[in-house]
Amino acid sequence: MTRLIFLGPPGAGKGTQAKTLADFLHIPHISTGDILRQAIQDQTPLGRKAKSYMDQGELVPDQLVQDLVEERLKQPDTQNGWILDGFPRKVTQAEFLQELLKTIGQSGEKVINLDAPDEIVVTRLLGRGRADDTEEVIRRRLEVYRNDTAPLINYYGDRHQLIPVNGDQSPEEVTAALKKIVNP
Ligand code: B4P
């Protein structure tokens, strides 16, 4: 049973690696960023609310992401494990998740802290060129990461759930390191 959370700055490779590992393990890859972008594309009420925040590199309000994560984790395909990519991004979201997992009987998650230096992640994201990958928005996302998300390293470290992985390697090298962790 693998239940993993991917933590790390934007551009560290969370989305890239979480998808590869979820395919390898045949468990769902749950990316809040992907779900929000799909909602924006489909012009749903959630997408309309999320768009302005994402365009500016700000976090979407907790209630919106928490509701979507709760709904997703209650689907039957999560019974054999899951990878959460991009959630939680704040201590308040982590506290919410802890309660939710307890309620639905899915605790015992491990947290991968995928890290890479600022100059590396900025170069990667500028190369990708998604709508929120302009230099100004990337800088803001990094600031938000430092203020809101980085405290989760201590949060999960204190709970002995944190596993550090160096994201400043080729995608194949990162995948190999992750496979060793989930399948030693
Ligand atoms: P996300 O979609 O989670 O995006 P991200 O942090 O920018 O990283 P991503 O996972 O996409 O990129 P990756 O490192 O894989 O979030 C976007 C926005 O959604 C947030 O700013 C926020 O507004 C909102 N949001 C999402 N979750 C939220 C939450 N919980 N609460 C509130 N708001 C939320 O890859 C980046 C690039 O690097 C790619 O081009 C990839 O090919 C390349 N790359 C990856 N690994 C590499 C490697 N090892 N070497 C070289 N290049 C690599």
UniProtKB/TrEMBL annotation:
Record GO cellular component, one term: cytoplasm
Cellular localisation: Cytoplasm
GO molecular function, one term: ATP binding
A single BP term in Gene Ontology: AMP salvage
SUPFAM superfamilies: P-loop containing nucleoside triphosphate hydrolases
Pathway assignment: Purine metabolism; AMP biosynthesis via salvage pathway; AMP from ADP: step 1/1
CDD domains in the record: ADK
Annotated Gene3D superfamilies: P-loop containing nucleotide triphosphate hydrolases
Binding site for AMP: 32, 37, 58-60, 86-89, 93, 130, 141
Pfam families: ADK
Residue span of region NMP: 31-60
Location (main, coarse): cytoplasm
Reaction equation(s) it catalyzes: AMP + ATP = 2 ADP
TM helices/strands, residue ranges: none
Binding site residues for ATP: 11-16, 128, 169
EC number(s) reported in the record: 2.7.4.3
Keywords for this protein: ATP-binding, Cytoplasm, Kinase, Nucleotide biosynthesis, Nucleotide-binding, Transferase
The record's note on its domains: Consists of three domains, a large central CORE domain and two small peripheral domains, NMPbind and LID, which undergo movements during catalysis. The LID domain closes over the site of phosphoryl transfer upon ATP binding. Assembling and dissambling the active center during each catalytic cycle provides an effective means to prevent ATP hydrolysis.
Family to which the UniProt record says this protein belongs: Belongs to the adenylate kinase family.
Role this protein plays: Catalyzes the reversible transfer of the terminal phosphate group between ATP and AMP. Plays an important role in cellular energy homeostasis and in adenine nucleotide metabolism.
Subunit relationships: Monomer.
Identification of the protein by name: Adenylate kinase
Species of provenance: Richelia sinica FACHB-800
Lineage of the organism: Bacteria, Bacillati, Cyanobacteriota, Cyanophyceae, Nostocales
Name of the encoding gene: adk
